[in-house]
Specification:
By secondary structure, the chain is of the alpha/beta class. It is built from nine helices and eight strands.
């Protein structure tokens, strides 16, 4: 890892990290996956975020005859017009924690702002499921969604892939696979502080503040649970920044946070897309931390970040 001068935190982010440090909140990497998931559930329940009003929410179970390979949570917009433009969403959590519940507020905010149907995938977590199995199941489910677009009430010609953090990693890899013809092609991809380089070689891995929810140590813990072997970090299906070509990929929105260890790999990914001639819209929040999108009750800059992504989705899905 490389040294990096520590960036300046926004006042609200600094106050939150100070509170975490003083409370001696256990680092995620000090726990086993089950305990880390339980701690995340407890924090979410304590936050008790109000849910943005949308049209409807329903869950589709996986495993039955003709059903999707993975469980799906489907969020409908208020107007409920069909066929609707759609966002296929992959939640963050380092492939180890999280799920549709952890990202419910974020998903509702996107649906409310963009007037789209959003389909959130409940993919299996690591280490119970590892790379490439998690990616393969997501790819199979994306194919199923496109094949069943009529029944889902969505327009297969107006679909975006989206995700945050590890979910942004999955969305970015699937968009590259779609470019190669291995999946139906999305019209756009919206990536929020995505993981793009599992070699952990970017300079921003030197960012380290007391109380950080996601540090370089946390990312090493996530990656160790996700990959079967360390060599897999060099496979572009795990590290999309290492893809041999970015030509022809769907237009991308890439959001980064300046006080996030993932900052430089997100910005490097956006730069490689742009160099290859892809349309890229960047949004950078210099004083914010990972994962501020899911902490709007204490880090209100998350609303501006979501709005930037919503504007991108509207521009590409509503034409």
């Amino acid at each position: 890892m490389m040294d990096k001068t520590q960036p300046t935190l926004d006042a609200d982010a600094a106050a939150l990290l100070d509170m975490f440090a003083k409370a001696q909140v256990p680092a995620m990497e000090s726990m086993n996956p089950a305990d880390a998931r339980a701690a995340g559930d407890q924090r979410r329940a304590a936050a008790n975020l109000p849910c943005p009003t949308i049209g409807a929410v329903s869950d589709l179970a996986a495993g039955g005859s003709g059903s999707a390979p993975l469980g799906l949570r489907i969020y409908r917009p208020l107007l409920g017009k069909t066929p609707s433009p759609a966002v296929i969403f992959f939640h963050g959590g380092g492939w180890v924690i999280g799920g549709p519940d952890s990202h419910d507020h974020l998903c509702r905010s996107v649906v409310r702002g963009a007037d789209v149907t959003l389909i959130s995938l409940d993919y299996p977590l690591s280490p119970e499921a590892k790379f490439p199995r998690t990616l393969d199941l997501c790819a199979e489910t994306v194919r199923w969604i496109f094949d069943n677009a009529d029944g889902l009430g969505i327009d297969p010609a107006r679909v975006a892939f989206s995700g945050d953090s590890a979910g942004g990693n999955l969305a970015a890899v699937l968009a590259l696979m779609a470019r190669d013809g291995d999946l139906p092609r999305p019209r756009a991809q919206a990536l929020f502080y995505p993981v793009t380089d599992l070699t952990m070689s970017q300079p921003s891995y030197g960012i380290d503040f007391p109380g950080m929810p996601v540090s370089a140590r946390t990312m090493a813990w996530f990656i160790d649970h996700y990959l079967e072997t360390s060599d897999q970090a060099h496979d572009w299906h795990a590290s999309p920044l290492l893809a041999p070509s970015f030509a022809g990929v769907a237009p991308a929105f890439v959001m980064t946070a300046g006080c996030d260890v993932l900052c430089d790999e997100g910005r490097a990914f956006a730069a490689k897309l742009a160099e290859a001639g892809a349309e890229v819209t960047g949004a950078h929040f210099p004083g914010q931390i990972h994962p501020f999108l899911t902490l709007p009750h204490v880090l209100p800059r998350s609303y501006a970040a979501i709005e930037a992504g919503v504007e991108f989705l509207v521009r590409h899905l509503m034409l």
